[in-house]
């Protein structure tokens, strides 16, 4: 079988061996319910609390701030509801138009119910206004809370939330950041960022799918989405997914530092991929700001190409990538992120995202560059 080249780590990353081993042990040995007071329950409880320590330590948070969820989508929904509940009716919540759908959709639902939402546009490179300008706008429009991602999943744009938190100090604005794509790619510390809520997902950083966390400043009272469970101090009901939480803990302890150490090599490979695409004269345009981009992400628009067709032809050539966001794959709508850059819809359809992982090799980049020209040619829309 042809060696497949996986360049879709922003959609999901392979499970790290340390997470796999920790989960196997948990599945075999930890059958108790962490809420049970007998010894079997207490062993499961101890494993959950150890994972909480590992997540807290990896992300510069304190233990009580970590709330386990089913993933970043749930953490984002929980964060948005919490911001809404924290504000009096007239004040606005701000968010960028390039947020993940799990931030956009709950905000739109609240907007339909009367909550004022201030939508922040990005410039053609995917950048937000400077922190001082944002802080002034927030004061002017009576913004009491904001949800802004630390890094964008599609174009890799990184946002300086620490600088924004600094510019907003004293202004009484609650800040949530979706750090799902940033963790393990750039250093992330909840304490150093100065935000009040931070979402993360296990499966983007070497942990399993179906688990994540919201890190929450105790000054904010969370608005639980699931009622009727006392788990997670009443902040997230439901029996804990012990093996998945244990896997997330192991990934936080082992995979995050490893991935951060690999980040400079990843950036070099990503840059080589882009240099090779340019050298091949494929009518390609890089999207996003190269000066503030995740080290593993390359978003490219190919002229006269339909991204879905290119994705399928790359797949046949043994290469996995995404066209726009994986979550919206299968829809014919161009990506909301690419459209937000001001790209016309017919050109936005030509966008493809390459996202590398710590184990991506130079040989895989070379093989991708070898196969790409023929695949792009085959994917050109007949005019
Ligand atoms: N936020 C961002 C920025 C993401 O990239 C994703 C995954 N596509 C999510 C949230 C949702 O994460 P999960 O799959 O854990 O629900």
How would you sum up this structure in a few lines?
This protein is of the alpha/beta class and 383 residues long.
Describe this structure as you would to a colleague:
By secondary structure, the chain is α/β, with parallel strands linked by helices. It has 2 domains: about 5-15 and about 260-380, Aspartate Aminotransferase, domain 1, CATH 3.90.1150.10; about 15-255, Type I PLP-dependent aspartate aminotransferase-like (Major domain) (Aspartate Aminotransferase, domain 2, 3-Layer(aba) Sandwich). It contains 12 helices and 12 strands. Strands 2-8-7-6-5-3-4 form a 7-stranded mixed sheet, sandwiched between helices. Strands 9-10-12 form a 3-stranded antiparallel sheet. The relative contact order is 0.17. Bound molecules: 4'-deoxy-4'-aminopyridoxal-5'-phosphate. The site of 4'-deoxy-4'-aminopyridoxal-5'-phosphate (PMP) has 14 residues, from helix 3. 4'-deoxy-4'-aminopyridoxal-5'-phosphate binds next to helix 3.
Question: How many DSSP E strands?
Answer: 12
The kinds of small molecule bound in this structure are: 4'-deoxy-4'-aminopyridoxal-5'-phosphate
Count of helical stretches:
12
Biggest sheet strand order reads: 2-8-7-6-5-3-4
Tell the overall outline: globular
